[in-house]
Design a protein that fits this description.
about 70 residues, 5 strands, elongated, single chain
Length: about 70
């Protein structure tokens, strides 16, 4: 009887904030071939203007997303 072999998975996430700017990078080898925020690698830039937050994301599947959020 063949037992399923375990697969190794590595996850890494780092971020750095300086003032209103945050840069984050995440990698999850278990998400190979996935899209959106679930892609294997995700890079995020966030700029908080106090009331307006701008977010830009890019992943290893050549997808990009830019969004703005407003708070009152």
């Amino acid at each position: 009887r063949n037992k399923p072999m375990a697969t190794a998975e590595n996850e890494l996430s780092v971020s750095y904030t300086m003032g209103a700017l945050t840069v984050a990078y995440a990698k999850d080898t278990g998400d190979k071939g996935k899209f959106g925020d679930e892609a294997e690698t995700l890079t995020t830039l966030t700029y908080d203007l106090g009331g307006i937050k701008l977010v830009a994301k890019g992943n290893d599947m050549d997808e990009t997303e830019v969004s703005a959020a407003f708070s009152f």
